[in-house]
Amino acid sequence: MQTISNILSQALTIASKQAGYNETLTATPCAIESMGDYQCVDAMKLAKIYHKKPFEIASEIISFLQNKAIKSASITGGYINIVLDDKFLSDYVPKYIEEVDNIVKKNVESKKIIVDYGGANVAKPLHVGHLRSANIGESIKRICKYVGCDTLGDVHLGDWGLQMGMVISEIKRLHPDLPYFAENYTGEYPKQSPVTIKDLETLYPQASKRAKENEDYMKEAKQITYDLQHGHRGYFALWKHILDVSVADLKKNYNQLNVHFDLWLGESDTRGSYDDVINFFVKNNYAYESEGALIVDIKEDTDTKEIPPFMLKKSDGSVLYSTTDLATLIDRYKKYNAQKVIYVVDNRQELHFVSLFRVAKKYHLVPESMELTFAGFGTMNGKDGKPYKTRDGGVMKLEDLINEVKSSASQKSTDNDVLDAVAISALKFADLSILRTKDYVFDPDKFCSFEGKTGPYLLYTLTRAKSIIRKVGTIDGAFDASLCDKKLLLTLINFCNMVIESYKQLSPNILCDYAYTLANDFNSFYTKTSIIGEKNLNKKYSMYKQTIFVINILQKIFDLLAIKPLEKM
Ligand code: ARG
Questions:
Q1: Does 355 sit in the ligand 1 pocket, CB within 6 Å?
Q2: Residue whose CA is closest, atom 8 of ligand 1?
Q3: What is the residue with the minimal CA distance to atom 2 of ligand 1?
Q4: Does residue 116's CB lie within 6 angstroms of at least one atom of ligand 1?
Q5: Which tens digits make up the pLDDT trace of 306-315?
Q6: Cβ of 121 below 6 Å from ligand 1
Q7: What is the pLDDT of residues 489-532, one digit of tens each?
Q8: Separation between Cα atoms, residue 28 and residue 21, nearest integer Å
Q9: Nearest CA to ligand 1 atom 3
Q10: Measured between alpha carbons, how far is 27 from 321 in angstroms, rounded to an integer?
Q11: Å from CA of 158 to ligand 1 middle
């Protein structure tokens, strides 16, 4: 089974060959409804090559054009407009809906992919940027899986940097008697964590403030980071507690957003391998010291702007973000055989990734054929144009954010489950539906609305369709496309193209736009007709089936966007 675009493109290509032109033609859905269902604009292209009028070429092509999918073809200017055959559609649409998953897979080359998203930092609060990464990344991962790629999502925790040294030094300041800090301690460390998640919420901000004000404190935090990275028993045991407490809390947060990682790896998982990576650069004389730090040149002659060197070690001897990212990338190639890695990270980190990809390829640490993609995203801002914050200017926690959105939605329902679903769909859909690379202003009232391009509008449309089906009950008949809403039918069979496009561009917003169009088409069909009151049984059955198709496709989209639908609202 193929998409309509493929069927028509093939028919057009054959017809153009018969007319004496040796080019591949393509058909796409017609932008203007009154012109036809599908359209081919390639006669313009042929006109340039063959020095003829587009109209002449188009006329020659349609004189040969023949396919059971086509009812009629006409020409406007040089465009070939195609109207689809109803009998063909009556047979095609139900099969398409049934086989949609396979059609998509058949049109995409399968690859082993790792999606790096989430990127939460242990012991530091999740901020709105991390939420956007989680939402977009989860959807990209699901899209990759859906098109048939063997895909793993990795949270890539920030768990090996200076913030760990800072938190440990703050715990040391407050509780110097804990065994983790006793110099010659050789016994076992306590099984119970000395800190809770509540403690962690205040420990990092306190430590960070103190480090800014006090040089010695910062020095100690750096020393602790160095010692932790070089096998200090006590710090490592304490670090493990902090990690476990943090991860348990993160899992709760991510669960609420319906975000689920296949791999819970982090920077620290490269602690057994980054020394080898560093040695590789040192042994081959690729790395050199500069102001105490160990760096590698990655400049190229063709560079038009300054590309700073890649840093492997800081002047205090500790490894950093870039080191662990390089070691992680090598692991992804060697241990996971990844052919493609997609990094879903804030736009502001683009240079870091450009450097990472360069160093890995330039020194042949991963093969040239490995696809390394930075899927950057813009910031979610408040109305003041700055990253979304709490009212008092603090970092917005997920829980508080959800509560804030819920209060915006509070007039919409009295049912707490419904409110939760409305708030989360509003939040997620906002992150997903805006062009990935763009900053946007988060306005809880606007995004909670049941009208317009919002999560709640889609939730509502899906539950409405489901409730119609419940009311109609089960009925039997023959599906007849000529008795359906044509516009809605055409939108339905455009699903595969839209998923494939959102995969190619790593852009869930394409799917969101499509879902919005589908919901609009469905709602306008629904307001024009009454399935329940319809007397013509064939028509009733066809409209009923069409509604079921809408439910099927919308549910797939909800799943790809990782938004949980509701049965009733
Ligand atoms: N932890 C990082 C941050 O908060 C994001 C990690 C992104 N992924 C990566 N492989 N560097 O900025």
A1: no
A2: 119
A3: 119
A4: yes
A5: 889 999 999 9
A6: yes
A7: 999 999 999 999 999 999 999 999 999 999 999 999 999 999 99
A8: 20
A9: 119
A10: 47
A11: 6
Of 197, 213, 206, the closest CA to residue 169 belongs to 206
**Second-level CATH architecture of 398-560:** Orthogonal Bundle (1.10)
| CATH 3.40.50.620 domain locations along the chain | 112-377
Q: Helix, strand, or coil here: 2?
A: coil
The answer to whether domain 4-84 has CATH 3.30.1360.70 is yes
pLDDT tens for each residue of 167-191:
999 999 999 999 999 988 999 999 9
**Residue 393: which pLDDT band, with cuts at 50, 70 and 90?**
low
Q: Would you give the end-to-end CA distance of the chain in angstroms? A: 37
Distances (CA, A) of 183 to 222, 225, 237: 18, 16, 14
Does an H or E element contain 147, and which?
Answer: none
Gap between the Cα atoms of 364 and 227, Å rounded: 31
CATH 1.10.730.10 in the chain, residue ranges: 398-560
**pLDDT mean across residues, the chain:** 95
Cβ of 222 closer than 6 Å to ligand 1, yes or no, is no
What is the CATH superfamily name and number for domain 112-377? HUPs (3.40.50.620)
Distance (Å, rounded) from C-alpha 320 to C-alpha 279?
15
Domain with CATH 3.30.1360.70 in the chain: 4-84
- State pLDDT tens for residues 270-283: 999 999 999 999 99
Nearest-atom number in ligand 1 for the CA of 328 is 10
Strands annotated E in 305-421: 310-313, 340-343, 371-374, 380-381
Nearest residue (by CA) to ligand 1, atom 12, is 119
The pLDDT tens digits of the residues spanning 98-121 come to: 999 999 999 999 999 999 999 999
- 519, 458 Cβ separation under 8 angstroms: yes
